[in-house]
Amino acid sequence: MIRFENVSIAYDRKDKPALDDVSFDVERGEFVFLVGSSGSGKSTLLRLILREYRTPHGQIYVAGQNVANVPSWRVPKFRRGIGVVFQDFRLIQTKTVFANVAYAMQVLGKNRAAIKSEVPRVLELVGLEDKAHRTPTELSGGEQQRVAIARAIVNQPGILLADEPTGNLDPITSAGIMAILDRINQNGTTVVMATHDDDIVNTMRKRVIELHHGQVVRDEATALYTSAIPVVQAGAAGPAMVPVKTDDAEPMTRRRRAATAAAAEDGTSTEESMPPRLERKLGTPLGEAAPTPADEMNDGNKK
Ligand SMILES: Nc1ncnc2c1ncn2[C@@H]1O[C@H](COP(=O)(O)OP(=O)(O)OP(=O)(O)O)[C@@H](O)[C@H]1O
């Protein structure tokens, strides 16, 4: 579905490459986390999938098309097959929830009957059917992100790109968003999500592609945020290591490290300071299993 072949790009001739000889394949229907420190190249990679830049080196194929061969005038059509969700939601503040989602269909010239039937289905999928007539200013951050997801999937894209979709949200709200993304993925949409959220990655156990200085240093199935095994760093002469955990226990997440440090200072048990496990939170009402009309819509897509 998405293939990078030896892709390198620098924003400026004198800059180090933002991506450096990156190769990977994402199959249709996969869910992939992109991880790596700030500046490692995650957003650049997502932008290249969207054909925001022409690629100076290497080849990128998206849904069978060589992205470099998509002429500028065809880029809008090319992007119809890709939904995008950003950290900062990017909703139109003056439009209602319904109108924000409907707008994504209007720009593609969909007729009123289609909009009237599709928008409610997608709002139901993200659990916002009762907030259709509110504006974004009347919604919580998590609800706004659900509107953004509804807008991203209303045209039934084969690929959903998410750039830190939970970056502005608390852990419980983030878990609700992840339940929705997981469900969209189970309905057949390929999902690529850039994130710094170790709890989410450690809970979901999906494929992880890790970038470091623009290079892929890890590409692992059902993986943790931080590698549990020594990994040879791409481009290194010898087996340089990315961070490795040394015991068999679950690796410390960012929040757990903070809780442990705080507990060490005040002498309390870390268990009490821990946030509830994300798995439990993923079982919250947003993850309800009953199929919705939007599921059927997506199922129809897969056939
Ligand atoms: N528009 C731009 N112009 C010049 N350099 C850029 C631009 N966007 C990103 N870069 C540089 O490219 C490199 C990769 O940036 P990118 O935004 O892809 O990283 P990231 O992994 O998404 O970071 P973060 O986790 O902070 O979002 C960085 O060195 C960054 O400074």
From TrEMBL:
InterPro entries: AAA+_ATPase, ABC_transporter-like_ATP-bd, ABC_transporter-like_CS, ABC_transpr_LolD-like, Cell_div_FtsE, P-loop_NTPase. The keyword Nucleotidyltransferase does not apply. Its main location: membrane. It is a peripheral membrane protein. It is found in: Cell membrane. Part of the ABC transporter FtsEX involved in cellular division. Has ATPase activity. PANTHER family: CELL DIVISION ATP-BINDING PROTEIN FTSE, IMPORT ATP-BINDING PROTEIN. Homodimer. Forms a membrane-associated complex with FtsX. This is Cell division ATP-binding protein FtsE. It comes from Arthrobacter psychrochitiniphilus.
